Amino acid sequence: MTASMITAGFVLFHVLGVLAAMHAVMHTRTPQGAIGWALGLIFLPYVTLLPYLYLGSNRFLGYLTSQQSKLSSRAPDGSGNTPSIDPDCARYAAISAIQGRPFRSGHQLKLLIDGDAAFEVMLTAMAEAKHCLLIQFFIFHDDQLGRRVQQLLLERTAAGVAVCVLFDGVGSHDLPKHYVETLRAGGVAIHPFATHRWRNRFQLNFRNHRKIVVVDGARAFVGGLNVGDEYLGLKPPLAPWRDTHMELRGPAVSDLQQLFARDWQWITGTPPPLLPSPPCAGEASALIVASGPADAQETCSLFFTAAIHAARERLWLTTPYFVPDHSVLSALRLAVARGVDVRVLIPSRPDHRTVFLASTLHAYEALGAGIRMFRYQPGFTHQKVLLIDNDTAAVGSMNLDSRSFRLNFEVSALIVNQHFAGEVEAMLKNDFAKARIVDKSEYLDAPYLRRVAMHVARLFDPLL
Questions:
Q1: Residues 264-274: pLDDT tens digits?
Q2: What CA–CA distances, in Å, run from 147 to 212, 228, 276?
Q3: Alpha-carbon Rg of the chain, whole angstroms?
Q4: Which CATH architecture has domain 299-463?
Q5: What is the pLDDT of residues 227-247, one digit of tens each?
Q6: Which one of 141, 211, 245, 362 is the catalytic residue?
Q7: Cis bond leading into 76, ω under 30°?
Q8: 318 has which bridge partners?
Q9: Dihedral through CA 83, CA 88, CA 94, CA 96, nearest 10?
Q10: Residue 197 confidence (pLDDT) above 70
Q11: 237 φ, ψ to 5°?
Q12: Which one of the listed residues 77, 142, 168, 216 is annotated catalytic?
Protein backbone atom coordinates (compact mmCIF):
# COMPACT_ATOMS: atom_id res chain seq x y z
CA MET A 1 0.00 0.00 0.00
CA THR A 2 2.76 2.41 0.91
CA ALA A 3 4.67 1.72 -2.31
CA SER A 4 1.47 2.20 -4.31
CA MET A 5 0.80 5.53 -2.61
CA ILE A 6 4.35 6.70 -3.31
CA THR A 7 4.00 5.67 -6.95
CA ALA A 8 0.65 7.43 -7.23
CA GLY A 9 2.19 10.52 -5.68
CA PHE A 10 5.00 10.57 -8.23
CA VAL A 11 2.52 10.11 -11.07
CA LEU A 12 0.35 12.93 -9.72
CA PHE A 13 3.34 15.25 -9.47
CA HIS A 14 4.31 14.51 -13.07
CA VAL A 15 0.76 15.03 -14.34
CA LEU A 16 0.56 18.35 -12.50
CA GLY A 17 4.02 19.18 -13.78
CA VAL A 18 2.96 18.62 -17.38
CA LEU A 19 -0.13 20.78 -16.88
CA ALA A 20 1.98 23.52 -15.28
CA ALA A 21 4.52 23.23 -18.12
CA MET A 22 1.71 23.82 -20.63
CA HIS A 23 0.71 26.91 -18.63
CA ALA A 24 4.34 28.10 -18.61
CA VAL A 25 4.68 27.67 -22.37
CA MET A 26 1.47 29.62 -22.92
CA HIS A 27 2.06 32.45 -20.45
CA THR A 28 5.78 32.95 -19.70
CA ARG A 29 6.86 36.17 -21.38
CA THR A 30 10.24 35.08 -22.75
CA PRO A 31 11.15 31.89 -24.68
CA GLN A 32 14.12 31.32 -22.37
CA GLY A 33 11.90 31.47 -19.30
CA ALA A 34 9.30 29.22 -20.91
CA ILE A 35 11.92 26.61 -21.79
CA GLY A 36 13.47 26.71 -18.32
CA TRP A 37 10.16 26.33 -16.50
CA ALA A 38 8.80 23.70 -18.90
CA LEU A 39 11.85 21.44 -18.66
CA GLY A 40 11.97 21.71 -14.89
CA LEU A 41 8.23 21.09 -14.50
CA ILE A 42 8.26 18.05 -16.78
CA PHE A 43 11.39 16.33 -15.48
CA LEU A 44 11.59 17.57 -11.86
CA PRO A 45 8.04 18.56 -10.90
CA TYR A 46 8.53 17.68 -7.22
CA VAL A 47 11.26 20.34 -7.11
CA THR A 48 9.84 23.02 -9.41
CA LEU A 49 6.06 22.80 -9.05
CA LEU A 50 5.78 24.69 -5.78
CA PRO A 51 8.23 27.46 -6.81
CA TYR A 52 6.29 27.85 -10.07
CA LEU A 53 3.07 28.51 -8.15
CA TYR A 54 4.78 31.40 -6.36
CA LEU A 55 7.21 32.67 -8.99
CA GLY A 56 5.95 31.54 -12.37
CA SER A 57 3.33 34.21 -13.02
CA ASN A 58 4.14 37.68 -14.30
CA ARG A 59 0.50 38.72 -14.35
CA PHE A 60 -1.35 40.21 -11.41
CA LEU A 61 -4.88 38.99 -11.95
CA GLY A 62 -8.06 40.94 -11.32
CA TYR A 63 -6.44 44.20 -10.22
CA LEU A 64 -7.77 46.49 -12.95
CA THR A 65 -11.00 44.60 -13.56
CA SER A 66 -12.03 44.94 -9.93
CA GLN A 67 -11.79 48.72 -10.05
CA GLN A 68 -12.73 49.94 -13.50
CA SER A 69 -16.43 49.91 -12.72
CA LYS A 70 -15.97 51.63 -9.36
CA LEU A 71 -13.42 54.39 -9.96
CA SER A 72 -13.49 57.34 -12.31
CA SER A 73 -10.74 57.68 -14.85
CA ARG A 74 -8.89 60.10 -12.61
CA ALA A 75 -9.23 62.08 -9.42
CA PRO A 76 -10.87 65.49 -9.59
CA ASP A 77 -8.80 68.60 -10.10
CA GLY A 78 -9.56 72.24 -9.57
CA SER A 79 -10.02 73.18 -13.21
CA GLY A 80 -11.92 70.20 -14.62
CA ASN A 81 -9.77 70.50 -17.75
CA THR A 82 -7.12 68.20 -19.24
CA PRO A 83 -4.27 70.43 -20.49
CA SER A 84 -2.78 69.63 -23.87
CA ILE A 85 0.75 68.26 -24.08
CA ASP A 86 3.40 70.96 -23.86
CA PRO A 87 5.46 71.16 -27.11
CA ASP A 88 8.65 70.44 -25.13
CA CYS A 89 7.11 67.13 -24.04
CA ALA A 90 6.44 65.90 -27.58
CA ARG A 91 9.41 63.53 -27.67
CA TYR A 92 7.87 61.63 -24.73
CA ALA A 93 4.51 61.19 -26.47
CA ALA A 94 4.95 57.40 -26.53
CA ILE A 95 5.26 57.32 -22.72
CA SER A 96 2.17 59.48 -22.39
CA ALA A 97 0.27 57.20 -24.76
CA ILE A 98 1.26 54.08 -22.79
CA GLN A 99 0.09 55.74 -19.59
CA GLY A 100 -3.19 56.84 -21.11
CA ARG A 101 -2.79 60.31 -19.62
CA PRO A 102 -1.23 63.55 -20.90
CA PHE A 103 1.53 65.67 -19.49
CA ARG A 104 0.10 68.38 -17.27
CA SER A 105 1.47 71.91 -17.15
CA GLY A 106 1.63 74.35 -14.25
CA HIS A 107 3.56 72.60 -11.48
CA GLN A 108 5.69 73.82 -8.62
CA LEU A 109 8.40 71.34 -7.69
CA LYS A 110 10.89 70.82 -4.90
CA LEU A 111 13.85 68.45 -5.06
CA LEU A 112 14.37 66.68 -1.72
CA ILE A 113 17.88 65.31 -1.28
CA ASP A 114 18.38 62.55 1.32
CA GLY A 115 16.19 61.42 4.18
CA ASP A 116 16.59 64.22 6.71
CA ALA A 117 15.56 66.95 4.25
CA ALA A 118 12.82 64.87 2.64
CA PHE A 119 11.16 63.74 5.86
CA GLU A 120 11.40 67.21 7.39
CA VAL A 121 9.33 68.56 4.50
CA MET A 122 6.97 65.56 4.31
CA LEU A 123 6.26 65.41 8.02
CA THR A 124 5.69 69.16 8.15
CA ALA A 125 3.25 68.89 5.25
CA MET A 126 1.43 65.97 6.91
CA ALA A 127 1.18 67.88 10.16
CA GLU A 128 -0.55 70.72 8.27
CA ALA A 129 -3.20 68.43 6.73
CA LYS A 130 -6.74 69.68 7.34
CA HIS A 131 -8.89 67.18 5.45
CA CYS A 132 -7.18 64.11 4.05
CA LEU A 133 -3.87 62.22 4.07
CA LEU A 134 -3.09 59.44 1.59
CA ILE A 135 0.13 57.64 2.51
CA GLN A 136 1.78 54.68 0.84
CA PHE A 137 5.25 53.21 1.43
CA PHE A 138 6.84 49.90 0.58
CA ILE A 139 8.39 49.63 4.05
CA PHE A 140 7.32 50.80 7.49
CA HIS A 141 9.61 50.06 10.44
CA ASP A 142 8.72 50.29 14.11
CA ASP A 143 11.77 52.41 14.92
CA GLN A 144 12.44 56.03 15.75
CA LEU A 145 11.20 57.42 12.43
CA GLY A 146 8.36 54.90 12.22
CA ARG A 147 7.06 55.86 15.65
CA ARG A 148 7.38 59.53 14.80
CA VAL A 149 5.19 58.98 11.73
CA GLN A 150 2.79 56.88 13.80
CA GLN A 151 2.34 59.64 16.39
CA LEU A 152 1.80 62.28 13.71
CA LEU A 153 -0.89 60.18 12.00
CA LEU A 154 -2.68 59.64 15.30
CA GLU A 155 -2.61 63.40 15.97
CA ARG A 156 -4.05 64.17 12.53
CA THR A 157 -6.81 61.60 12.93
CA ALA A 158 -7.67 63.06 16.34
CA ALA A 159 -7.94 66.45 14.63
CA GLY A 160 -10.58 65.10 12.22
CA VAL A 161 -8.34 64.38 9.23
CA ALA A 162 -9.17 61.28 7.18
CA VAL A 163 -5.95 59.22 7.11
CA CYS A 164 -5.50 56.28 4.71
CA VAL A 165 -2.27 54.26 4.84
CA LEU A 166 -0.99 51.42 2.66
CA PHE A 167 2.18 49.40 3.18
CA ASP A 168 3.49 46.37 1.35
CA GLY A 169 2.82 43.15 3.23
CA VAL A 170 6.14 41.60 2.20
CA GLY A 171 8.32 44.72 2.32
CA SER A 172 7.03 45.39 5.85
CA HIS A 173 7.07 41.75 6.92
CA ASP A 174 8.75 42.55 10.25
CA LEU A 175 6.35 45.36 11.18
CA PRO A 176 4.83 44.25 14.52
CA LYS A 177 1.06 43.90 14.77
CA HIS A 178 0.87 46.36 17.65
CA TYR A 179 2.17 49.14 15.38
CA VAL A 180 -0.77 48.67 13.01
CA GLU A 181 -3.27 47.99 15.79
CA THR A 182 -2.31 51.22 17.57
CA LEU A 183 -2.99 53.20 14.41
CA ARG A 184 -6.32 51.45 13.82
CA ALA A 185 -7.39 52.03 17.41
CA GLY A 186 -6.66 55.72 16.88
CA GLY A 187 -8.89 55.90 13.79
CA VAL A 188 -6.27 55.53 11.05
CA ALA A 189 -7.41 53.38 8.11
CA ILE A 190 -4.32 51.25 7.48
CA HIS A 191 -3.93 48.09 5.39
CA PRO A 192 -1.17 45.93 3.96
CA PHE A 193 -1.13 45.64 0.18
CA ALA A 194 -1.52 41.87 0.20
CA THR A 195 -1.10 40.55 -3.33
CA HIS A 196 -2.07 36.97 -2.48
CA ARG A 197 -5.84 37.25 -2.47
CA TRP A 198 -8.41 35.29 -4.45
CA ARG A 199 -6.91 34.32 -7.82
CA ASN A 200 -3.52 35.70 -6.71
CA ARG A 201 -3.27 33.65 -3.54
CA PHE A 202 -0.07 31.92 -4.72
CA GLN A 203 1.42 35.01 -6.35
CA LEU A 204 3.66 36.13 -3.51
CA ASN A 205 6.38 37.32 -5.87
CA PHE A 206 4.65 40.64 -6.53
CA ARG A 207 5.33 43.75 -4.46
CA ASN A 208 3.82 47.21 -4.22
CA HIS A 209 7.00 49.29 -4.26
CA ARG A 210 5.32 52.70 -4.61
CA LYS A 211 6.01 55.60 -2.28
CA ILE A 212 3.22 58.19 -2.40
CA VAL A 213 2.10 60.88 0.02
CA VAL A 214 -0.78 63.23 -0.84
CA VAL A 215 -1.79 66.03 1.53
CA ASP A 216 -5.29 67.52 1.13
CA GLY A 217 -5.16 66.85 -2.62
CA ALA A 218 -2.79 69.79 -3.00
CA ARG A 219 0.73 68.50 -2.29
CA ALA A 220 2.23 65.17 -3.26
CA PHE A 221 5.53 63.40 -2.70
CA VAL A 222 7.19 60.58 -4.65
CA GLY A 223 10.68 59.10 -4.63
CA GLY A 224 12.84 56.34 -3.23
CA LEU A 225 12.49 56.73 0.54
CA ASN A 226 10.65 54.45 2.95
CA VAL A 227 9.74 54.87 6.62
CA GLY A 228 12.70 53.59 8.60
CA ASP A 229 15.81 54.80 10.37
CA GLU A 230 18.13 53.38 7.70
CA TYR A 231 16.65 55.91 5.25
CA LEU A 232 17.98 58.63 7.54
CA GLY A 233 21.43 57.04 7.38
CA LEU A 234 21.28 55.76 10.96
CA LYS A 235 22.09 52.10 10.32
CA PRO A 236 25.60 51.02 9.29
CA PRO A 237 27.16 49.42 7.29
CA LEU A 238 25.12 51.05 4.49
CA ALA A 239 25.16 54.51 6.10
CA PRO A 240 25.23 57.23 4.99
CA TRP A 241 22.13 56.48 2.92
CA ARG A 242 21.86 58.40 -0.35
CA ASP A 243 18.32 58.88 -1.67
CA THR A 244 16.10 61.34 -3.51
CA HIS A 245 12.46 62.36 -3.17
CA MET A 246 10.46 65.24 -4.65
CA GLU A 247 7.40 67.36 -3.93
CA LEU A 248 4.80 68.30 -6.53
CA ARG A 249 2.06 70.90 -6.45
CA GLY A 250 -0.27 71.15 -9.41
CA PRO A 251 -2.68 69.07 -11.49
CA ALA A 252 -0.54 65.90 -11.52
CA VAL A 253 -1.36 65.53 -7.82
CA SER A 254 -4.80 64.32 -8.93
CA ASP A 255 -3.12 61.53 -10.93
CA LEU A 256 -1.20 60.43 -7.84
CA GLN A 257 -4.45 60.45 -5.86
CA GLN A 258 -6.03 58.25 -8.50
CA LEU A 259 -3.08 55.87 -8.45
CA PHE A 260 -3.34 55.53 -4.68
CA ALA A 261 -7.11 55.06 -5.06
CA ARG A 262 -6.60 52.09 -7.37
CA ASP A 263 -4.39 50.33 -4.85
CA TRP A 264 -6.75 51.23 -2.01
CA GLN A 265 -9.77 49.98 -3.97
CA TRP A 266 -8.04 46.64 -4.59
CA ILE A 267 -7.46 46.10 -0.87
CA THR A 268 -10.56 47.59 0.74
CA GLY A 269 -13.23 47.44 -1.95
CA THR A 270 -14.11 51.09 -1.35
CA PRO A 271 -12.58 54.32 -2.68
CA PRO A 272 -10.58 56.66 -0.43
CA PRO A 273 -11.51 60.32 -0.07
CA LEU A 274 -10.30 62.26 -3.12
CA LEU A 275 -10.03 66.04 -3.09
CA PRO A 276 -9.73 68.47 -6.01
CA SER A 277 -6.18 69.57 -6.75
CA PRO A 278 -6.14 73.37 -6.66
CA PRO A 279 -4.62 75.38 -9.52
CA CYS A 280 -0.90 76.11 -9.26
CA ALA A 281 1.13 78.94 -10.77
CA GLY A 282 4.18 76.81 -11.54
CA GLU A 283 5.81 76.41 -14.95
CA ALA A 284 6.94 72.76 -14.96
CA SER A 285 5.24 70.04 -16.99
CA ALA A 286 4.81 66.64 -15.35
CA LEU A 287 3.63 63.16 -16.24
CA ILE A 288 2.96 60.56 -13.55
CA VAL A 289 4.32 57.25 -14.83
CA ALA A 290 2.83 54.19 -13.15
CA SER A 291 3.65 50.56 -13.86
CA GLY A 292 2.94 47.13 -12.47
CA PRO A 293 2.29 43.46 -13.17
CA ALA A 294 -1.38 44.19 -13.88
CA ASP A 295 -0.40 46.16 -17.01
CA ALA A 296 -1.08 44.65 -20.42
CA GLN A 297 2.56 45.29 -21.32
CA GLU A 298 5.87 45.76 -19.51
CA THR A 299 5.29 49.45 -18.85
CA CYS A 300 8.35 50.10 -16.68
CA SER A 301 10.79 48.63 -19.21
CA LEU A 302 9.04 50.52 -22.01
CA PHE A 303 9.30 53.74 -20.00
CA PHE A 304 13.07 53.42 -19.61
CA THR A 305 13.50 52.39 -23.25
CA ALA A 306 11.47 55.33 -24.58
CA ALA A 307 13.13 57.83 -22.24
CA ILE A 308 16.62 56.64 -23.22
CA HIS A 309 15.76 56.86 -26.92
CA ALA A 310 14.69 60.48 -26.36
CA ALA A 311 18.16 61.53 -25.16
CA ARG A 312 20.25 63.48 -27.65
CA GLU A 313 23.11 64.91 -25.58
CA ARG A 314 23.08 63.45 -22.07
CA LEU A 315 21.63 60.52 -20.18
CA TRP A 316 22.57 60.22 -16.53
CA LEU A 317 20.86 57.73 -14.29
CA THR A 318 21.35 56.35 -10.83
CA THR A 319 19.97 53.06 -9.58
CA PRO A 320 20.76 50.76 -6.66
CA TYR A 321 20.33 47.69 -8.89
CA PHE A 322 21.73 47.64 -12.42
CA VAL A 323 20.12 44.57 -13.98
CA PRO A 324 18.80 45.89 -17.32
CA ASP A 325 16.78 43.71 -19.66
CA HIS A 326 17.65 43.34 -23.33
CA SER A 327 15.54 46.27 -24.56
CA VAL A 328 16.87 48.74 -21.98
CA LEU A 329 20.48 47.66 -22.52
CA SER A 330 20.01 47.97 -26.29
CA ALA A 331 18.60 51.47 -25.81
CA LEU A 332 21.66 52.42 -23.74
CA ARG A 333 23.97 51.02 -26.42
CA LEU A 334 22.18 53.00 -29.13
CA ALA A 335 22.40 56.17 -27.02
CA VAL A 336 26.18 55.74 -26.83
CA ALA A 337 26.26 55.19 -30.61
CA ARG A 338 24.40 58.49 -31.07
CA GLY A 339 27.11 60.28 -29.11
CA VAL A 340 25.04 60.69 -25.94
CA ASP A 341 26.95 61.09 -22.66
CA VAL A 342 25.66 57.97 -20.88
CA ARG A 343 26.57 57.62 -17.20
CA VAL A 344 25.20 55.18 -14.64
CA LEU A 345 25.74 55.56 -10.90
CA ILE A 346 25.48 52.38 -8.80
CA PRO A 347 26.39 51.46 -5.21
CA SER A 348 29.80 50.34 -4.03
CA ARG A 349 28.23 48.43 -1.12
CA PRO A 350 25.66 45.62 -1.45
CA ASP A 351 22.35 45.49 0.36
CA HIS A 352 21.37 42.34 -1.55
CA ARG A 353 24.40 40.24 -2.45
CA THR A 354 22.86 38.26 -5.32
CA VAL A 355 21.68 41.46 -7.02
CA PHE A 356 25.06 43.09 -6.39
CA LEU A 357 26.88 40.18 -8.07
CA ALA A 358 24.56 40.29 -11.08
CA SER A 359 24.91 44.09 -11.26
CA THR A 360 28.71 43.77 -11.29
CA LEU A 361 28.58 41.47 -14.31
CA HIS A 362 26.11 43.74 -16.11
CA ALA A 363 28.33 46.74 -15.35
CA TYR A 364 31.32 44.93 -16.88
CA GLU A 365 29.35 44.17 -20.06
CA ALA A 366 28.03 47.75 -20.18
CA LEU A 367 31.60 49.06 -20.20
CA GLY A 368 32.20 47.12 -23.40
CA ALA A 369 29.35 49.07 -25.01
CA GLY A 370 30.86 52.43 -24.02
CA ILE A 371 28.52 53.07 -21.09
CA ARG A 372 30.35 54.88 -18.29
CA MET A 373 29.76 53.23 -14.92
CA PHE A 374 30.42 54.82 -11.52
CA ARG A 375 30.29 53.46 -7.97
CA TYR A 376 29.13 55.83 -5.24
CA GLN A 377 31.65 55.75 -2.37
CA PRO A 378 30.38 57.47 0.83
CA GLY A 379 27.56 54.99 1.50
CA PHE A 380 24.69 53.15 -0.16
CA THR A 381 22.89 54.93 -3.00
CA HIS A 382 19.22 53.97 -3.23
CA GLN A 383 17.96 56.83 -5.39
CA LYS A 384 16.13 56.21 -8.66
CA VAL A 385 16.80 59.31 -10.76
CA LEU A 386 17.02 59.90 -14.50
CA LEU A 387 18.38 63.05 -16.21
CA ILE A 388 17.92 63.60 -19.95
CA ASP A 389 19.63 66.44 -21.82
CA ASN A 390 19.13 69.80 -20.10
CA ASP A 391 15.36 69.80 -19.62
CA THR A 392 14.07 66.44 -18.38
CA ALA A 393 14.33 64.52 -15.12
CA ALA A 394 12.50 61.64 -13.48
CA VAL A 395 12.32 60.82 -9.77
CA GLY A 396 10.47 57.85 -8.37
CA SER A 397 10.57 54.26 -7.17
CA MET A 398 11.60 52.47 -10.39
CA ASN A 399 14.80 50.44 -10.25
CA LEU A 400 16.67 49.25 -13.30
CA ASP A 401 15.95 45.57 -12.75
CA SER A 402 13.50 42.87 -13.73
CA ARG A 403 11.58 43.15 -10.47
CA SER A 404 10.67 46.77 -11.24
CA PHE A 405 10.17 46.00 -14.94
CA ARG A 406 7.74 43.13 -14.39
CA LEU A 407 6.90 42.26 -10.78
CA ASN A 408 6.53 45.48 -8.77
CA PHE A 409 3.93 48.21 -8.76
CA GLU A 410 6.01 51.38 -9.30
CA VAL A 411 5.58 55.12 -9.79
CA SER A 412 7.77 57.93 -11.05
CA ALA A 413 7.29 61.60 -11.92
CA LEU A 414 8.65 62.56 -15.35
CA ILE A 415 9.38 66.29 -15.36
CA VAL A 416 10.08 68.54 -18.33
CA ASN A 417 11.47 71.81 -17.00
CA GLN A 418 14.95 73.29 -17.42
CA HIS A 419 15.11 74.75 -13.92
CA PHE A 420 14.24 71.47 -12.20
CA ALA A 421 16.54 69.53 -14.54
CA GLY A 422 19.30 71.98 -13.59
CA GLU A 423 18.77 71.19 -9.91
CA VAL A 424 18.96 67.47 -10.65
CA GLU A 425 22.10 68.04 -12.70
CA ALA A 426 23.79 69.84 -9.81
CA MET A 427 22.78 67.06 -7.43
CA LEU A 428 24.11 64.31 -9.70
CA LYS A 429 27.35 66.18 -10.41
CA ASN A 430 27.95 66.17 -6.66
CA ASP A 431 27.18 62.44 -6.55
CA PHE A 432 29.52 61.63 -9.44
CA ALA A 433 32.24 63.67 -7.76
CA LYS A 434 31.97 61.24 -4.83
CA ALA A 435 32.14 58.16 -7.03
CA ARG A 436 34.92 56.14 -8.61
CA ILE A 437 34.91 55.16 -12.25
CA VAL A 438 34.36 51.44 -12.82
CA ASP A 439 36.78 49.71 -15.18
CA LYS A 440 36.93 46.19 -16.52
CA SER A 441 39.47 45.11 -13.92
CA GLU A 442 36.65 44.97 -11.37
CA TYR A 443 35.48 41.83 -13.14
CA LEU A 444 38.68 40.57 -14.78
CA ASP A 445 40.76 40.75 -11.58
CA ALA A 446 38.09 39.15 -9.40
CA PRO A 447 38.82 35.61 -8.14
CA TYR A 448 37.56 32.91 -10.48
CA LEU A 449 34.92 31.64 -8.07
CA ARG A 450 33.57 35.16 -7.59
CA ARG A 451 33.23 35.52 -11.37
CA VAL A 452 31.40 32.20 -11.47
CA ALA A 453 29.11 33.51 -8.72
CA MET A 454 28.37 36.61 -10.87
CA HIS A 455 27.29 34.45 -13.78
CA VAL A 456 25.19 32.23 -11.53
CA ALA A 457 23.55 35.32 -10.02
CA ARG A 458 22.69 36.57 -13.49
CA LEU A 459 20.68 33.39 -14.09
CA PHE A 460 18.25 34.80 -11.54
CA ASP A 461 17.82 38.12 -13.39
CA PRO A 462 14.08 37.51 -13.95
CA LEU A 463 13.54 37.39 -10.19
CA LEU A 464 15.94 40.16 -9.07
A1: 998 998 999 99
A2: 19, 9, 30
A3: 23
A4: 2-Layer Sandwich (3.30)
A5: 999 999 999 999 999 999 999
A6: 211
A7: no
A8: 345, 385
A9: -30
A10: no
A11: -90, 0
A12: 216
